[in-house]
Amino acid sequence: MEQTTTPPRTRPRRTPPSTTDRPARLVVLVSGSGSNLQALIDACADPAYGAQVVAVGADRDGIEGLARGERAGAETFVHRVRDYAERADWDAALTASVASYEPDLVVSAGFLKLVGSEFLTAFADRYVNTHNSLLPSFVGIHGPRDALAYGVKVAGATLFFVDHGVDTGPIIAQVAVPVLDDDDEDTLTERIKQAERRQLVDAVGAMVREGWTIDGRKVTIG
């Protein structure tokens, strides 16, 4: 009989809450209007939330997300992919800009570019993204449309740590949104957005105040 071996279990990776009196430092990446960014900015106005948006980065100029950051007093920066000869050069520049703000957590809030290996190595266990489906179902950019087409009765949103795959990282939190009989893509998308935004604010706040542990694919806050 052929013997099989169990791969060694990796040790849990613990990120403690900040032990200083300063709020946790958030860098938020955006590509559009920045509605999720605004929800984080509004939450950070309460000192008890425990975080501050110190910088907002984007992959394009002239978007409302950058304007929201500026109005909130955060620094802003832009790295357009087309300005770099190689995608790896863009990734390195983005990594350097984010790192300069010494973030405790990096949040993709509608950031439409996939980051590369250098970025993921620099911010391993600190880069989170939100997706408008209950992963691992309906990955990609059309979560609500695909959920409706499949006929599911419950859709939702997922907050997860970004890894080298597409919507494949360890799951931090999920929220369910019932699919109504008269839903179309627009109505379902809007209700998911509202639930997704509340979840993002609640989970990020809990993470920075309580810390988190990643044990394989299991994420525990606190």
UniProtKB/TrEMBL annotation:
Q: Name one GO biological process term.
A: 'de novo' IMP biosynthetic process
Role, per record: Catalyzes the transfer of a formyl group from 10-formyltetrahydrofolate to 5-phospho-ribosyl-glycinamide (GAR), producing 5-phospho-ribosyl-N-formylglycinamide (FGAR) and tetrahydrofolate.
A GO cellular component annotated for this chain's UniProt record is: cytosol
Which keywords fit this entry according to its UniProt record? Purine biosynthesis, Transferase
Q: Which SUPFAM superfamilies match?
A: Formyltransferase
Q: Where is this site: Raises pKa of active site His?
A: D167
The protein's Enzyme Commission number:
2.1.2.2
Q: Which residues are the active-site ones? A: H131 (proton donor)
Pathway it works in: Purine metabolism; IMP biosynthesis via de novo pathway; N(2)-formyl-N(1)-(5-phospho-D-ribosyl)glycinamide from N(1)-(5-phospho-D-ribosyl)glycinamide (10-formyl THF route): step 1/1
Quick one: which gene encodes this?
purN
Q: Which GO terms describe its molecular function?
A: phosphoribosylglycinamide formyltransferase activity
Q: Pfam families from the entry? A: Formyl_trans_N (PF00551)
Q: Which InterPro entries match?
A: Formyl_transf_N, Formyl_transf_N_sf, GART
Annotated ranges, domain Formyl transferase N-terminal:
25-204
Q: Which reaction does it catalyse?
A: N(1)-(5-phospho-beta-D-ribosyl)glycinamide + (6R)-10-formyltetrahydrofolate = N(2)-formyl-N(1)-(5-phospho-beta-D-ribosyl)glycinamide + (6S)-5,6,7,8-tetrahydrofolate + H(+)
Q: Where are the stretches annotated Disordered? A: 1-22
Descriptive protein name: Phosphoribosylglycinamide formyltransferase
Q: Which family does it belong to?
A: Belongs to the GART family.
At the top of the EC hierarchy, this enzyme's class is transferase
Q: Where does this protein hold N(1)-(5-phospho-beta-D-ribosyl)glycinamide?
A: G34, S35, N36
Q: Which NCBIfam families match?
A: PurN (TIGR00639)
Name the source organism. Mumia zhuanghuii
Q: Which residues bind (6R)-10-formyltetrahydrofolate?
A: R87, L112, K113, L114, V115, N129
